[in-house]
C-alpha cells in the first residue's frame, strides 16, 4: 500500500464506528445536496427494512471546517426525516474531510476499500455523477458517500420523501403567511435565480449561469401553457436580480427575513403552479417536491458547463428544458404541444422557438 493510500485508509478507519444494523448517510455541503443523500439512504433503508443513521462529521469536525472558506450546517433536522442520530463521537468522525473528487472515491473502491477490515470496508461511493445501479447491492452496516443527484435513487420512496420533507419541525410565522399568499391552484409562477457564488470564475466553470433571456423565454412558455397568475422571484442575491430583471413587468420579490430556514424556501418553490428553475440542487427539489399533474417545471440546459459531468439521470422525465444562454427572441405567441413537455431540448428537437 502506498503512503497516500495508507493515509487515506487511516482517515477512513481512525476510531470511526458504524451502526451495523442499518444504513448510514454521510451528508455534505448545503441543503440541496443533503436532501439527495437523505433520499438515497432512505430508499436503501426501506429496501433492507433497517434504520437510517447519519454521520454528521462533515459539519462537526473542526479540522474539516478550517479547510472550507464558507460555513455549512447540517439541515436534515428541519423536517421529520426519520433519521436516527447516533449518540457518541465515534459515530461522527470523518470518512473524508469533504466530499472528494469522484476519481478518488473510485480509486478507493478498487484498490483500497476491499482490503480494509471492519467498518472501513463498508463504504459505498458513487463512481460517476450518473445513476449507479450498484446501490441496490449495499448491505446493513454500509455508509453511503456521494452526491446521488438523480430521481432514480428514490423511486420506491417518493411519497414518503415528499411527505416527510413537507412536515417541517418548526415552521416560522413568515412561512405560514407566505403559504397563505402563494397557494397551489392560484396560477402562480416562481423564477428561482442563482447568482452570488455561481458568478465566481471557479463555480462558473463548473455550473455556468442561466441568463435573463432564459427566464424571459421560460416565463412566456409557461404563460402559453396557461399558468397566468402572479410571478414571484426567489434568489439569494435578490436585490441584484431585481435590478438585472428590470423591465420584466409585475415581478413580486420573495423576501425572507434573516435566518429563514432554507427548507421553507424550497417548499415555497414547490407550492407554485409553475417553476422556472436555476441549475442548482435547491431548485431541483422545488420542482420534485411540487410534482403534480399539469405543473410545468422548466430547467436550464446544459445543467453543467463542465462537459465531463454526466447529468443524463438528473432531471425528471416530464420537465421542460430550455437553452440557458442568450439568443434573439422570436416574435409571436408561444405554442407548445402537450407531447413537447419533456426534458428533451424543445427549440432544437421540436422546432419550437421560445
Could you describe the 3D structure shown?
The chain is an alpha/beta fold. The strands form two sheets. It has a six-stranded parallel sheet with strand order 7-6-5-8-9-10, sandwiched between helices. Helix 2 packs across helix 12 and helix 11 packs across helix 12. It is globular and about 60 Å long. The N and C termini lie far apart (57 Å).
Report mean pLDDT, rounded to a whole number.
83
Cα-atom radius of gyration: 21 Å
**Shape type:** globular
For the termini, the CA-CA separation is: 57 Å
Instruction: Give the tally of β-strands.
Output: 10
The unreliable regions are: 1-11, 116-120, 330-354
Query: By helix and strand content, what is the structural category?
Result: alpha/beta
**Roughly what percent helix?**
25-40%
Q: Outline the biggest β-sheet.
A: 6 strands, parallel
Number of helices: 13
What is the strand content? 5-15%
**Helix and strand element order:** HEHEHHHEEHHEHHEHEHEHEEH
Q: Strands across the major sheet, in which order?
A: 7-6-5-8-9-10
Write the layout of secondary structure elements.
Layout: H1 3-13, E1 23-25, H2 31-48, E2 52-54, H3 57-60, H4 62-66, H5 102-112, E3 123-125, E4 143-145, H6 158-165, H7 173-181, E5 189-193, H8 201-206, H9 212-224, E6 231-235, H10 238-244, E7 251-253, H11 262-271, E8 274-276, H12 281-289, E9 297-301, E10 320-323, H13 346-349
Helix pairs in contact: 2-12, 11-12
Amino acid at each position: 500500500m502506498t503512503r497516500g493510500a495508507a493515509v487515506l485508509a487511516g482517515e477512513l478507519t481512525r476510531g470511526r464506528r458504524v451502526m451495523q444494523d442499518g444504513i448510514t448517510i454521510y451528508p455534505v455541503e448545503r441543503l440541496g445536496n443533503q436532501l439527495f443523500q437523505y433520499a438515497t439512504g432512505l430508499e436503501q433503508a426501506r429496501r433492507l427494512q433497517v434504520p437510517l443513521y447519519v454521520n454528521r462529521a462533515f459539519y462537526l469536525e473542526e479540522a474539516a471546517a478550517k479547510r472550507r472558506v464558507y460555513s455549512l450546517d447540517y439541515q436534515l433536522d428541519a423536517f421529520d426525516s426519520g433519521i436516527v442520530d447516533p449518540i457518541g463521537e465515534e459515530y461522527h468522525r470523518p470518512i473524508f474531510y469533504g466530499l472528494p473528487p469522484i476519481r478518488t472515491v473510485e480509486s478507493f473502491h478498487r484498490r483500497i476499500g476491499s482490503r480494509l477490515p471492519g467498518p472501513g470496508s463498508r463504504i459505498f461511493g458513487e463512481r460517476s455523477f450518473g445513476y449507479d445501479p450498484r446501490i441496490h447491492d449495499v448491505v446493513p452496516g454500509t455508509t453511503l458517500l456521494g452526491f446521488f443527484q438523480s430521481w432514480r435513487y428514490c423511486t420506491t420512496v417518493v411519497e414518503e420523501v415528499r411527505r416527510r420533507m413537507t412536515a417541517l419541525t418548526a415552521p416560522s410565522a413568515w412561512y405560514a403567511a407566505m403559504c397563505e399568499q402563494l397557494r397551489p391552484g392560484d396560477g402562480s409562477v416562481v423564477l428561482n435565480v442563482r447568482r452570488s457564488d455561481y458568478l465566481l470564475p471557479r463555480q462558473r466553470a463548473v455550473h455556468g449561469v442561466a441568463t435573463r433571456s432564459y427566464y424571459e423565454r421560460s416565463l412566456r412558455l409557461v404563460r402559453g401553457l396557461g399558468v397566468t397568475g402572479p410571478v414571484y422571484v426567489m434568489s439569494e442575491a435578490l436585490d441584484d436580480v431585481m435590478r438585472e430583471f428590470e423591465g420584466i413587468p409585475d415581478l413580486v420579490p420573495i423576501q425572507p427575513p434573516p435566518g429563514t430556514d432554507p427548507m421553507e424556501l424550497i417548499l415555497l418553490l414547490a407550492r407554485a403552479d409553475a417553476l422556472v428553475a436555476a441549475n442548482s440542487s435547491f431548485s431541483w427539489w422545488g420542482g420534485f417536491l411540487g410534482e403534480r399533474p399539469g405543473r410545468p417545471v422548466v430547467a436550464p440546459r446544459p445543467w453543467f458547463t463542465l462537459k465531463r459531468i454526466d447529468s443524463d439521470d438528473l432531471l425528471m422525465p416530464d420537465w421542460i428544458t430550455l437553452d440557458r444562454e442568450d439568443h434573439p427572441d422570436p416574435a409571436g405567441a408561444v405554442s407548445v404541444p402537450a407531447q413537447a413537455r419533456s426534458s428533451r431540448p424543445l427549440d432544437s428537437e421540436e422546432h419550437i422557438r421560445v
